[in-house]
Structure to design on (971 residues):
């Protein structure tokens, strides 16, 4: 490319964005080509220039914790949370705490769940909700599930309430939103290992730390959806509120929040799903129940029973998801004036009757109260044998053996070496070029500086290995997920089941993938990438299906009328219009991949995840945080570039 | 003045009363449980012993490295399995910061080293000698290690020095670190199907011994100072050129406040000492006999009253 242009780099108005981006990219490549001639500091930041950020941060943490006494504040909060958690724990599984009345018999809870399901959307939901709890009891996981639920029933409402308040504040005060948004973005991309130590130190190991970590993880979508919903409330509605003389509080309570009901409930749904996603990971910091059991089962290689726990988590997630989605759709009921109260509250009364009835029944029938160990229907052993038989199958092993050899020798190792060989300056400039291409100077500066900061922390090589795993997995996910998504979107018959598979794969605890991945491929990068791939394909497929399905009918008809063939319709109409939505899916895939690549440290990696794991042994908070920020910054740079592109594209297409 | 005196007198009486009665606090003793069976069962065994003495006990699941910070802060009361190899570093760093102390050592000794399942010996008959292993290195080669053998080490946070040993002894191996114990078992489990030779990191006492019979590789015997002093061990120019100590400690750690808050339970805790067969038995009840940990602990206590009863009586 035109190397002579380089001196003219300082922005000239005449240069448009693609040109500047091209020039930047050309410089990046040039730097790589002439690598042997480059001064050392462009290849890697020299050790001497790496400042002791981790010591400073460690000092800062100690200062905040001990000298400013933050730990007393957080311990006060956790005492409050503990009080709530003790109540739910007593009611649900009979922990020996006030109010000393639990545990509630399983039949009573299942019956109430069924009544709620019925109230939300009829018999099918009742069967799902009741059935899920019956399954849990019959499989012999009732107590574990209730231990988990005792934390979630506190964490989810607290997250919803806090999210609602923060969302309202963000909507009222633009400045607050400007501060809040980047913090939320960092919280969402910070790897899980970074939460672990602070949660334990500041909030006390046990259900409280698990509860806090869950709340922090689940809150961002609630905040975003609340402020989004409030912003969308139409002027007419607001004016009607003003005309009827509402006070500010009344406006909020009776006008804004009801009008934004749909978005707020979507936020609630997200909170529930994210809380369930944390069930296993929080077991490392004291979350009781299913997650803890799953970890110990996996450590003695009991695949069958781990699988059953996975199924339980999925069932509960699907139940709660469907119920909360039904709640979104369900419009508030209105009764004629003068309807007697028992008719208005019929379902409530039925629920109470079923609850009391079951409790009375449980006094006389042991099975209705709790299921004993040898009464359950667990098939752990049998499932174990099936899984092992599949994993030991010769044909499967031949395929995986070949794949492993091929991917490692011909794809992964060369790619990894290449990315490690690149000078830091090249990567930073290339990222900046991409930023410039989608969003001009500001984006270029933002994305480039994120990577520059990573170079300055001295963790460049580890970060590049992380990026390498993420990119490889996402490319693989794109190659498989996109065609599948497109196929599914074109046939209604297929899209429903595939979306169901997506839902299931997303809530199935990611830990369970790790073991089969290792048994198929061994402890190496292929297993790591396979585990990330499963996790990252889901959003790609889901958004592709949704993007293509959302293409307006009129446009398809117009294409039909102008005599387009099926493939022309797909390539010229559907895909271009769905592209912005697909980009969102792609972005999600990258975010999920960054999440999973750190979890994959449990398989065995050489990236930031491994270093993060190491910091746990020495309780090195400072280093832990530096590493966590490296992951977050990379994820945020990708996020910024892709979302910027998607938004620009949407505008150009005039959709959304 | 007079009021203050009365109050302080009352406090004194109250304090002396608690000391003389040496009654344990009714607050629950918090015992951490991790994700391997022997530790879970042992924790329940000790918990049930405390309960039989009238104490309240609660269990909390935690990460096995981060737990030392919690013991230090008093959020959990004790830790029953401090492995010298895997958790020594976390334990020592917490000891330095203060807040917890060494409350006793189990009779059991731990060994953590390179290990292979029995079927490996068929293709490499010279085992368990390390030099014989080195000659078979090609057997353990994988695509990512090229023509060198692959040794699957434990998670990096267990702070082993396998790579240094490979360098020090000039072995033809590459160390790949698994990320978790589960990853090690999965690797052995996958190799079991077609009896593929593998050499991995393993330790004893451990449930794996019962599932997959195997042996430790015999490295040059451990000498004190081998990791610091190049002259120790067969290679005069390198450190880490010995096997790991074959008798590492297994300690009990306790929160400093435990002694005052639950003196009787603390007294018992310092008496507790399990042996290797006992620990293996506890793991077996869960891993092989498929019992739930609470039931396994109860069963063990019932069968071994003569072992644990004396611990509760004395002091």
């Amino acid at each position: 490319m035109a190397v002579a242009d380089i001196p003219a780099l300082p922005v000239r108005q005449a240069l448009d964005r693609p040109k500047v981006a091209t020039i930047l990219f050309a410089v990046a490549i040039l730097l790589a080509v002439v690598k042997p001639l480059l001064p050392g500091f462009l290849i890697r930041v020299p050790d001497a220039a790496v400042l002791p950020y981790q010591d400073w941060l460690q000092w800062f943490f100690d200062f905040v914790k001990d000298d400013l006494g933050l730990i007393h504040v957080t311990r006060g909060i956790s005492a409050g949370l503990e009080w709530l958690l003790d109540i739910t724990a007593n009611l649900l599984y009979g922990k020996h705490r006030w109010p000393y009345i639990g545990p509630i018999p399983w039949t009573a809870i299942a019956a109430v769940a069924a009544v709620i399901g019925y109230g939300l959307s009829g018999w099918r939901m009742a069967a799902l909700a009741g059935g899920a709890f019956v399954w849990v009891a019959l499989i012999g996981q009732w107590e574990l599930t209730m231990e988990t639920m005792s934390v979630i029933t506190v964490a989810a409402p607290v997250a919803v309430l806090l999210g609602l308040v923060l969302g309202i504040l963000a909507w009222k005060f633009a400045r607050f939103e400007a501060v809040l948004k980047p913090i939320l973005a960092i919280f969402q991309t910070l790897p899980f290992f970074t939460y672990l130590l602070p949660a334990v130190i500041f909030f006390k190991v046990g259900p409280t730390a698990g509860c806090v970590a869950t709340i922090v993880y689940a809150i961002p979508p609630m905040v975003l959806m609340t402020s989004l919903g409030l912003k969308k409330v139409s002027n007419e509605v607001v004016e009607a509120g003003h005309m009827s003389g509402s006070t500010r509080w009344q406006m909020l309570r009776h006008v804004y929040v009801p009008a934004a009901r749909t978005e707020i409930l979507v936020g609630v749904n997200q909170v529930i799903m994210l809380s369930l996603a944390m069930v296993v990971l929080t077991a490392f910091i004291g979350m009781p129940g299913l997650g803890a059991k799953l970890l110990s089962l996996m450590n003695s290689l009991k695949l069958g029973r781990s699988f059953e726990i996975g199924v339980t988590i999925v069932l509960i997630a699907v139940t709660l998801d469907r119920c909360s989605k039904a709640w979104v759709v369900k419009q508030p009921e209105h009764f004629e004036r003068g309807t007697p109260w028992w008719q208005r509250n019929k379902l409530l009364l039925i629920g109470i009757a079923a609850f009391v009835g079951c409790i009375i029944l449980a006094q006389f029938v042991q099975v209705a109260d709790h299921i004993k160990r040898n009464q359950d229907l667990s098939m752990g052993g049998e499932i174990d044998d099936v899984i092992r038989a599949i994993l030991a199958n010769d044909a499967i092993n031949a395929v995986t053996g070949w794949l492993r050899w091929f991917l490692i020798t011909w794809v992964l190792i060369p790619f990894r070496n290449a990315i490690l060989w690149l000078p830091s300056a090249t990567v930073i400039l290339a990222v900046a070029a991409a930023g410039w291409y989608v969003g001009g100077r500001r984006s270029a500066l933002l994305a480039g500086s994120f990577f520059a900061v990573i170079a300055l922390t001295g963790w460049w090589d580890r970060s590049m290995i992380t990026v390498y795993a993420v990119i490889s997995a996402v490319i693989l996910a794109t190659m498989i997920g996109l065609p599948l998504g497109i196929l599914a979107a074109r046939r209604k018959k297929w899209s429903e089941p595939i979306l169901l598979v997506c839902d299931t794969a997303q809530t199935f605890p990611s830990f369970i993938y790790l073991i089969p991945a290792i048994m198929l491929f061994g402890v190496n990068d292929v297993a790591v990438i396979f585990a990330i791939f499963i996790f990252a394909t889901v959003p790609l497929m889901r958004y592709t299906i949704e993007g293509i399905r959302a293409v307006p009918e009129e446009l398809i008809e117009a294409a039909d009328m102008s005599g387009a063939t099926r493939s022309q319709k797909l390539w010229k109409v559907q895909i271009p219009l769905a592209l912005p939505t697909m980009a969102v899916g792609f972005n999600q895939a990258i975010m999920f991949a960054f999440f999973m690549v750190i979890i994959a440290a449990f398989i065995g990696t050489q990236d930031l995840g491994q270093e993060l794991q190491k910091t746990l042994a020495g309780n090195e908070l400072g280093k832990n945080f530096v590493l966590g920020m490296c992951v977050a910054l990379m994820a945020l740079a990708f996020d910024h570039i892709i979302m910027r592109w998607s938004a620009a594209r949407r505008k150009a297409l005039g959709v959304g | 003045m007079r009021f203050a005196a009365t109050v302080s007198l009352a406090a004194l009486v109250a304090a002396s009363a608690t000391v003389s009665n040496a009654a344990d606090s009714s607050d629950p003793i918090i015992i951490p449980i991790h994700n391997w069976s022997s530790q879970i069962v042992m924790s329940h065994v000790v918990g049930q012993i405390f309960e039989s003495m009238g104490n309240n006990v609660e269990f909390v699941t935690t990460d096995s490295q981060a737990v030392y910070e919690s013991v230090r802060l008093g959020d959990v009361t004790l830790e029953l399995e401090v492995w010298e190899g895997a958790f020594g570093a976390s334990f020592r760093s917490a000891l330095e910061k203060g807040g917890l102390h060494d409350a006793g050592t189990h009779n059991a000794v731990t060994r953590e080293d390179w290990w292979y399942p029995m079927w490996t010996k068929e293709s490499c008959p010279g085992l368990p000698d390390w030099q014989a292993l080195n000659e078979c290195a090609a057997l353990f080669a994988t695509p990512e290690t090229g023509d060198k053998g692959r040794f699957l080490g434990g998670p990096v946070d267990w702070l082993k020095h396998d790579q240094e040993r490979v360098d020090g002894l000039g072995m033809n191996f590459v160390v790949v670190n698994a990320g978790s114990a589960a990853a090690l078992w999965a690797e052995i489990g996958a190799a079991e199907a077609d009896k593929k030779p593998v050499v991995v990191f393993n330790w004893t006492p451990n449930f794996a011994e019962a599932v997959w019979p195997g042996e430790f590789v015999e490295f040059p015997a451990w000498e004190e100072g081998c990791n610091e002093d190049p002259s120790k061990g067969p290679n005069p120019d390198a450190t880490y050129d010995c096997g790991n100590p074959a008798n590492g400690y297994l300690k009990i750690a306790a929160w400093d406040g435990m002694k005052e808050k639950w003196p009787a339970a603390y007294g018992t805790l310092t008496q507790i000492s399990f042996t290797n067969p006992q620990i293996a038995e506890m793991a077996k009840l869960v891993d092989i006999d498929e019992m739930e940990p609470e039931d396994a602990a109860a069963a063990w206590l019932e069968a071994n009253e003569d072992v644990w009863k004396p611990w509760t009586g004395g002091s």
